[in-house]
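Structure tokens please, single chain.
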Amino acid sequence: MHRLEVLDSDAEAEFDALTQAASLVCQAPISLISLVDAHRQWFKSRQGLETPETPRDLAFCAHAILDGDVFEVPDTTRDLRFHDNPLVTQAPDIRFYAGVPLTLGDGSRVGTLCVIDRVPRQLTAQQREILRHLGLAAAHALEGRRARRLERQLAEASAAAQAEVRRFRDEFVAAAAHELRTPMTSLMGFADLLLTRDYTPEEQRQNLERIQRQTAHLLALTQDMLDLASLDARGGLELARVPLDVVPWLREVLQDYAPPEGRAAPRLQLLADPAPLQADPVRLRQVVLNLLSNAYKYSPDGGPVQVSLGRTADSVVLTVRDQGLGMTPEQLARVTERFYRADRSSEIPGTGLGMSIVQDLVRLHGGQLDIASTPGAGTTVTVRLPAPAAAAGPG
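Here you go.
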């Protein structure tokens, strides 16, 4: 009943036309479309009756919905179920009642279309047949009303989603233009200097190194934007999932990883037992490399970076921990926002897109990303990926 969202709604011509037809065909002064919930019967449409509802325990319709066909009471004063009903002994002085249940497509009965008279009588066979058809029409009208409401809601949701896509596109383009402008301006500046001034070989080398760093930053930013475009494209990025034992795979990823100059390789704590997943190894590698890059960048004064792999009953748990700058609660709340950079962003290179990409890729794998951080003490990032059930291991 409540999924129809019709109770206590305004009068509608579609339903009023059905009760008017029922009164006319059955020659009854009162006709109702009655909807029954746990405590009352409420009239979606009514002819010849002022009250909008009655208690369920007095309702004739509460009996009628239990019947699969027309429920008819020729003389209420002679029926033991109703002879002392206040609706019979007082206004509206019901003497005759006939109602047909309103049966929805799923078989549920939510109310009745009924006709009422103040004198004992019976319907003709033709009147009963027409009442059945009017009841079917009322049930269809209820479902049609719900379908139209759902269509409106879907249209509104679609319009809102399209507006959100347009908003994000505009913000993305504006942010991308801003982020691209900085390295491009630097590149142009260093190139102009090399073209317009005479430098010693050492000075030339230094300027070329600056150009090299800005070009690398520009390439990283471009790649991150391409990844985001893939993630946001209609249908999203498709993962190339394969069976993957994360233990040897992670060891290989870390062996191939080159930490920043002068920094120690990450400490690795692995499981002794296999940790099988269905995962995209390329995209999962992207997650690990982004987390390692952040761990090193945001611990500029040194300190170990630790990578561990654990197992729960239903997940493989990858943790990357550093002892670097850490984040305030305000920074932590925004760390996965696109283009978000912390307060020292001018000192630390980056695009502001890495953690957003990490979060999207983890979610695509059906996993969960958790980040804990304390200013001055470092950050711990935990990735939980669903895995076949197994006995819990260390971690």
